[in-house]
Structure formats: C-alpha cells, structure tokens
Amino acid sequence: MLIGYARVSTQDQKPELQLDALKAAGCEQMFQEKASGKNTDRPELQTCIKVLRTGDTLVVWRLDRLGRSLKDLVGIIHGLEERGIGFRSLNESIDTTTAGGKLIFNIFGALAEFERTLIRERTVAGLAAARARGRCGGRPLKLSKGDVKKAAAMLLSPAMTKAEVARHFGVSRVTLDAALAREVHQ
Description:
It is a single chain. The chain is an alpha/beta fold. The chain is built from seven helices and five strands; from the N terminus they run βαβαβαββαααα. The chain has a five-stranded mixed sheet with strand order 2-1-3-4-5, with helices on both faces. A hairpin with a 4-residue loop joins strand 4 (86-89) and strand 5.
C-alpha cells in the first residue's frame, strides 16, 4: 500500500499541490499537517509511521516535507527500512524499493555521516586553535582563583559551613564544590 505524507510549514500555506501529487502517485491513504520541519514532534507524521506495515511505501512530494536535515531524513528512512517499509520522494525520484533508489539513499546517508564528521573535525580544530591562543572554551568561572583560596581558608574554620561560604560569594554550594575540586586538581 502506498501511504502519503504532506506537510506545510505555516497556516497560510496550502497542502493541495502535495495532496494532488500524492493522489496521482497512487496513495490510498494520506496524512497531512501544518508544522515546521524543525519540529521533530509532528503528531501526523508519528501516526503515519505507526500505520505503515511491512511491504508498504511512504510517499512524500519532496524530501524536505519529511525532514529538515539530511541526518533526520536518513534516520527516519533507515527506521522504515528496518521494518521492511519502502520510501518514495516524487520530486527527487527516489524510490528505496528499487536497487537504484537504495543506492541513492545510501549515498545520502554517507554524505550525512561525512557532514557530521566534518563538523566534528572543524569543532576540534577550532577549539585547539583557541587553546593555542590562550583561550579556553566553556562558561566563565564564577569564582576567581583568589576567591577559591579565600573560600578554602574560610572552610578551615569549624564554625563555617560550605553553605555559608557559598552564600558569602554569591554562588551555589555545587559551584563552590566544583571550584574547590578544580583548585585541588591543578
């Protein structure tokens, strides 16, 4: 069975073009919704995916109607494939029920993995370059080294509690503990 899914992003957009194309492609059942592609919690898409059975094919008008990113698309389609469900995109002429369609989609999957690897490599290189210039990433510390030393000295007094010292410096007890731990490990 061919099952169609149509999505428009805003209330002003109309899904008729997509629905007409899905009907012309032979879809016997169709799901539609108005939701942003960024939103991964799309009730009609979830219902559509649950309705699909082994041997069915999910049909969309264009790839971007199913997912916003290549990573999301690959994840959804691999999930379908594991259940024995095919996928077709009308505009891009992708049909995973054919050998050629599977090849194209596996190339998309490889490209998505390549993109993730490149992003990871650029991030690591950027952080290394920043460290080489003396910058370190992360949130600025709430307590300076001097404040941490003062806090440690205050805690030597049996009359002072960590909660009181943390209040004195305007931080939480967890922040004070983390700062003290960092000081010990340096």
